[in-house]
Each structure stands twice: as structure tokens, then as C-alpha cells.
Amino acid sequence: MKQIAIVTGGSSGIGLYTAKALASKGFTVYTLGRKPFSCEGLHHICADVTDEEALGRAVGQILENEQTIDLVINNAGFGISGAVEFTDTAEAQRQFDVNFFGMVRMNHVILPQMRKQGFGRIINISSVAAPLPIPFQTYYSAAKAAIDAYTMALVNELRPYGITVCAIRPGDIATGFTAARKKSTLGDDSYGGRISRSVAKMEHDEQNGIRPEVAARSICRIAMKKSSKPLVTIGLTYRLFTVLAKLLPCRLINYIVGLLYAK
């Protein structure tokens, strides 16, 4: 019997490549996204992660076709950048509403089914920006850090029910995420041009980062495991960074990040 997977934000970027990788491994894959989308070998349902009722209907539709749901990958998200002082609180809330609470909503509608069937695996896509918060990308970093904390707690909540949970932390990946980021240089004069320099550095690193198909293969491999560490960083360089973040004094590691992204 084929395993059934759901990938939110599965119509572009690493979500799409991950969905294709899972399909190549024999999964029946349903992608969820806001807009209509078609790709051979994938089943798409229009559902916005900010709408819990729509997510519930999507899960119901899938269960009409399938007996179980084995895997959920919470990938939907977007980025904003800019100085905290000049970022509207509504924009910060929107960042959390999609990147963090979108995951929360998806898990809220899927967990009753997984607990009932006695198994399931949930993968939450985090970021290296969680353990290494990036200046002028503060709210993105904070939302990803919230995903890490949520995942660690959820692992222990679900342990008795055969449901495993993992947050995967990619580093820089060369996708359309960079162009889609909502960038603001408001206040750049007051900040001595540091906002625009920081964003330019981020974009350069991203476009020279891991190819999305490579990242997707790593995500697929981890997702197919029965269990794993609750927090997994992909990419050798980024694993080194996260190890250093644990070993070095907080003040020192934050100073180094500041040299890279806040000069």
C-alpha cells in the first residue's frame, strides 16, 4: 500500500522539489497551496495555511481518497526583511501567521487522524536562522526559532502515539524565495545603509547556496526515516555553524553574525 504525504507550499521551491522526490520514492503526494497548480505525478489542492477550515477540508478530501495520511511536511512560508524599528507590527504578525501558525494549523487538523491511526510523521521546515538569528531578518529568524521550540515540545507530547516529529533546518538555498522576500529598506539612511547591505549579503548567499533538488533529497531522506533527532540541520557547512553556535559563547557567536550581516 502506497504511503500518503502532504506537502504545504508544495508548488514551488524546496516544497515542489521535495514533493517530486517523495513521489519518485513511491509516495502518493498531495501538495497544498493558495493558487491552482499542476505537475505530473502530484495531486494539488488549493488551501491557504492561514485558513484552518480550508486545511480541514483538504485533509477530509484526501481521506476520502486514501485510507491514511503517513507524512506531513510543513514547508509553506515566506520572508520579510528590514529593521525592527521600521517594520509594521502587522507585517511581523503576518510573518508569524504564515511561517509559524500555518504549521500550527496544519498539525492541528492532521493530528487527530494520525493519533487515531496510531502512526505518522511530521516534518516542520525550520532554518539555520533559528539558532543563528540574522539581523534585519529578525521576524523570520524568530518565527523559525518558534518552530524549533514547538517541535521539541511536540515530540514528547506525541511519543506514546507512534507519531514522530522533526524540524529540518536548511541553510541558504537557491530558489525563488529570494525574489519573493518582502524587502524593506525603510530607515536605511538612519541606519547608515546597513539594511540594504545586509539584504544584499543575504541574497548573494542564498543565490549561491545549496541547489533546491539537493536540499529536497536530504529532506526526503529524513522524512522517510521512522524517527530522527528532533532538530536536524542539512548541509555540512550549516551543520558546522549550528555546532559552533552551541559551543561558542553566545556573545561571540552573535558578534560574528553581526560582522556578516549588520556591518
Terminal Cα span: 55 Å
Return residue spans where pLDDT drops below 50 for at least 5 consecutive residues: none
Query: Helix count, per DSSP?
Result: 10
The largest sheet is:
7 strands, parallel
Rg of Cα set: 18 Å
Q: What spatial form do the alpha-carbon principal axes imply?
A: globular
Spatial arrangement of strands, main beta sheet: 3-2-1-4-6-7-9
State which percent range the strand residues make up: 5-15%
Mean pLDDT value:
95
Helix content: 40-55%
The helix-and-strand class reads alpha/beta
Order of helices and strands: EHEEHEEHHEHEHEHHEHH
Number of strands: 9
What does this structure look like?
The protein is α/β, with parallel strands linked by helices and 263 residues long. 49% of the residues lie in helices and 15% in strands. The chain contains ten helices and nine strands. The protein has helices at residues 13-24, 52-65, 89-99, 101-117, 138-158, 177-180, 194-207, 212-223, 236-247, 250-261, and strands at 4-8, 28-33, 43-46, 71-74, 80-81, 120-125, 163-169, 182-183, 231-233. The chain has a seven-stranded parallel beta sheet with strand order 3-2-1-4-6-7-9, with helices on both faces. A two-stranded parallel sheet has the order 5-8. Strand 1 (4-8), helix 1 and strand 2 form a beta-alpha-beta unit. Helix 3 (89-99) packs parallel to helix 5. The longest helix has 21 residues, at 138-158. The radius of gyration is 18 Å and the shape is globular. The model has no long low-confidence stretch (mean pLDDT 95).
